[in-house]
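Narrative of accomplishments. A recurring question from our advisory board has been how the design workflow behaves on a single, concrete structure rather than in aggregate. To address it, we present the structure tokens for one chain from the evaluation set, followed by the sequence designed for it. No filtering or post-editing was applied between the two.
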């Protein structure tokens, strides 16, 4: 009897699971959103592109990497390597935490610390992170490390201070990550009310090096109250910064929601895809290129990157000769005004030397002969 009952329960569970799968709505390509999160051109003309695939809720979605189509300036490129990051590729993250006076209100800082700690707890072996706190000034609370306990202790010791200088803190974070390789990201947790920075959003974006990184912004506050309230949130500034830096923006108005946001970002970063290709335009010519990633009939994502370079990298002797010839011509043009000025100074001198020497005129002064000596004869 007992065995029969167990068999019936197992059958009912199996039917329930089958029914739930059968009735689950299928997720098509149109439901998947691709994001180009990082472009690493440090080994140009080889380019490494990090792509995330998420659903409308921002949760990571598994796709076939072979289905991701890349284009550079509208021309399809054939990847040399396509793979999911999975558990083999470490992730380096900098948590940039707002500890300004506005974070003291409405329990913001306590919620921020709890959410950041949950992010550290879900880090994989090999992943690394660091912590930067900012108020009127910014400071590195914990350098980049894989030591979970050191990171958790650094977060736990955060306390509020004065005004907000978010962009200055971001510049420091970018400087730390520019020396790192691989996938790297900045997660900013703030209410976005920057009122003290010497740097601007444009300067922050310009500071990102050729290896690239992404900046995602997590707001804690109420967007409807805006900057008029210390419990509010400067949503436009945070959303625009994330969009320009290849990241994403989201906000929460309570600690629990914020913790879920942090965990979701962590899962998305750990579920990205890496595509490596060789650019069709292999010269570091300083020209910005547009990179597009698409998946089937779903939406496409695009970003821009610049390989850097001032002097063109050319591969043939003829091209080098042409470049040097143009450079010599440019230097000659720059020298012409100086030569003209020197010529104007020399012309009067040459004209003076070219004048004929004056003919000597006979002297009009008469010299009287000395009187002849008179000889007396005795």
């Amino acid at each position: 009897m007992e065995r029969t009952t167990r068999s019936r329960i197992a059958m009912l569970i199996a039917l329930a699971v089958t029914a739930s799968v059968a009735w689950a709505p299928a997720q098509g390509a149109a439901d998947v959103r691709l994001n180009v999160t990082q472009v690493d051109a440090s080994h140009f003309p080889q380019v490494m592109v990090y792509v995330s695939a998420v659903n409308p809720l921002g949760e990571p979605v598994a796709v076939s990497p072979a289905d991701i189509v890349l284009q550079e300036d509208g021309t399809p490129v054939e990847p040399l390597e396509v793979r999911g990051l999975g558990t083999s590729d470490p992730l380096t993250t900098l948590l940039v935490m707002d500890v300004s006076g506005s974070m003291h209100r409405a329990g913001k800082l306590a919620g921020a610390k709890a959410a950041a700690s949950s992010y550290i707890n879900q880090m994989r072996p090999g992943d690394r992170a660091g912590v930067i706190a900012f108020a009127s000034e910014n400071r590195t609370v914990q350098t980049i490390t894989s030591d979970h306990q050191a990171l958790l202790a650094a977060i736990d010791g955060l306390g509020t201070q004065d005004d907000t200088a978010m962009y200055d803190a971001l510049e420091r974070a970018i400087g730390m990550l520019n020396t790192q390789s691989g996938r790297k990201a900045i997660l900013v947790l703030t209410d976005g009310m920057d009122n003290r920075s010497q740097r601007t959003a444009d300067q922050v974006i310009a500071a990102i090096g050729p290896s690239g990184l992404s900046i995602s912004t997590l707001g804690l506050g109420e967007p409807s109250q805006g900057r008029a309230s210390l419990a509010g949130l400067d949503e436009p500034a945070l959303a625009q910064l994330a969009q320009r830096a290849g990241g994403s923006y989201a906000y929460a108005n309570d600690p629990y929601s914020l913790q879920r946001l942090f965990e979701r970002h962590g899962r998305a970063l750990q579920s990205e895809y890496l595509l490596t290709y060789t650019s069709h335009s292999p010269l570091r010519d300083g020209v910005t290129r547009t990179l597009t990633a698409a998946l089937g009939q779903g939406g496409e994502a695009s970003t821009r990157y610049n390989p850097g370079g001032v002097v063109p990298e050319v591969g043939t002797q003829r091209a080098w000769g042409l470049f040097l010839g143009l450079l010599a011509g440019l230097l000659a043009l720059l020298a012409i005004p100086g030569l003209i000025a020197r010529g104007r100074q020399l012309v009067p001198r040459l004209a003076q030397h070219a004048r004929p020497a004056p003919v000597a005129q006979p002297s009009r002064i008469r010299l009287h002969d000395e009187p002849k000596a008179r000889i007396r004869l005795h």
